[in-house]
């Protein structure tokens, strides 16, 4: 029964947009239409919804951005080189492309709409909330200090998608609710261990969990850790 209910709102999608051949994609049904997620690589994603294109952390090493769809919206989580790449941004931007990012990224890029942790904006019919992204383990705070970087909660009508950025499983994350799709990072020493990702999933129970930014970490370890939490569907896609 659980699998049948899940398939009512989860659909596998064929890639149709030019330049996306070779990238995996999944589609979800929302009350506002189909949301398609394209898995570009590492921490880089692309959303297609309501005729709009949203790029997250576009980076040239992950794709030929001269061939990818132009952006209506670009979300940047933080200023590290594997998340902020001006060359990639320049290739997908139009005159009306909106860019949302944290303060440090805006200083490096020289433009954009800054969101601080906790801010909420309505953009292109989407509700976007900046969720804190930071390290909590002793001696790792220097990688992603508290109050600097963003994750993003994006509401596509009735579906809530959480892209965590580079972070560990701090209390604000553990307190999240009503998450349909979550992207949680899983590589050491910069983000979470599989055990930390599993603890976060147990706390806020996303319907679908994608490990991403996982580097050399085996994502199947997360499947094993969450075998006893059947309401969380762990889906592994080619991202590293």
Question: Quick recap of the structure?
Answer:
18% of the residues lie in helices and 32% in strands. It has 240 residues and is of the alpha/beta class.
Write a structural description.
The protein has 240 residues and is α/β, with parallel strands linked by helices. Strands 1-2-3-4-5-6-7-8 form an eight-stranded mixed beta sheet. It has a seven-stranded mixed beta sheet with strand order 9-10-11-12-13-14-15, with no helix packed on it. Strand 12, helix 4 and strand 13 (181-185) form a beta-alpha-beta unit. It has helices at residues 2-9, 86-92, 103-109, 171-174, 194-204, 220-225; strands spanning 10-12, 24-30, 33-41, 44-49, 52-56, 73-75, 98-101, 113-114, 120-123, 126-133, 149-156, 159-163, 181-185, 208-212, 233-234. Mean pLDDT is 93; it is low at 1-16.
Q: What is the second-level CATH architecture? A: 4-Layer Sandwich
Are there runs of 5+ residues with pLDDT below 50, and where? 1-16
N-to-C series of helices and strands: HEEEEEEHEHEEEEEHEHEHE
Number of strands: 15
What share of the residues does DSSP label as strand, in percent? 25-35%
Q: What would the CATH topology be?
A: Metallo-beta-lactamase, Chain A
Oligomer: single chain
Structural class: alpha/beta
The CATH C-level name is: Alpha Beta
Spatial sequence of strands, sheet with the most strands = 1-2-3-4-5-6-7-8
Distance between the termini: 33 Å
Number of helices: 6
What gyration radius follows from the Cα positions, in whole Å? Answer: 17 Å
> What form results from the Cα inertia axes?
globular
- What's the domain count? 1
Largest sheet: 8 strands, mixed
Mean pLDDT across residues: 93
**Share in helix:** 10-25%
CATH superfamily: Ribonuclease Z/Hydroxyacylglutathione hydrolase-like
